[in-house]
Design a protein that fits this description.
Elements lengths: L2 E5 L8 H14 L4 E5 L5 H5 L11 H5 L5 H4 L1 E3 L4 E4 L8 H4 L9 H7 L7 E5 L6 H9 L2 E6 L5 H18 L5 E10 L4 H14 L3 E7 L2 H5 L7 H4 L4 H18 L2
Parallel strand pairs: 1-5, 1-6, 2-4, 2-5, 6-7, 7-8
Antiparallel strand pairs: 3-4
The structure holds adenosine-5'-diphosphate (ADP) and magnesium ion.
Amino acid sequence: MSYIFAVANQKGGVGKTTTTVNLAAALAAQGQRVLLVDLDPQGNATMGSGVDKRTLKNSVYHVLLGLSSLAEARQASETGKYDTLPANRDLAGAEVEMVDLDNRETRLKHALALHDKDYDFVLIDCPPSLSMLTLNGLCAANGVIIPMQCEYYALEGLSDLVNTIKKVHANLNPDLKIIGLLRVMFDTRSTLSNQVSAQLEQHFGDKVFKSIVPRNVRLAEAPSYGMPGVLFDRAAKGAQAYLAFAAEMIERVKTF
Ligand code: ADP
Ligand code: MG
């Protein structure tokens, strides 16, 4: 059985893709069988896994539209040691093309169900919106991981996401829950970061992961080498944080 987690936050640039790619690689480094699903037409998680989005024969787009099986579309990340269901610009059209299809919110869920025995973890990198693509991610998942920067407006955006998750839970996917909030791009020297971080802990209690990912330039450099940060420079503070986060996730799922 696989644990399926959507990495979601409707804001762009908050660290969703960095978290998905590095958690995938860190879990794989700890012996877990992992599938990373790229649900963003930008294909950043695909490229960051060392898979070339420009030369895909089949992608998550084809799987969502029933034009290809997952088995035909998945590709191994040679650098990350996990599988990817890659994405590219084709996926931008999926939203409109899916309108006439049956069960359009649950197409990813059904594709993943056939491979439940292949993976310990499936991680879904969601696009920066609360669109039909994100809805497919949320319907397929057992839980949501929310990366967030500890900024002034972070909490405000969070309530929209929490409300969407509640609606999906009530109407489409009773299994769905928030697994946790991950503090990323954290600056320990910033008073504001520390204040927002304390507020988060007060508000969400043990839904806030203990691991904190610092701002670390090595994590930002890694994608241009087609490598997850945890493998690009394993000793760097950012990589170490994601390795710790993976260990925390492995412990957390034991309590499910
Ligand atoms: P999203 O997927 O939410 O849009 P990304 O993961 O692409 O966000 O991150 C946005 C930008 O911030 C990218 O350029 C990425 O390399 C950078 N970044 C993400 N996490 C960190 C971090 N911990 N330290 C430094 N840069 C980071
Ligand atoms: Mg992204």
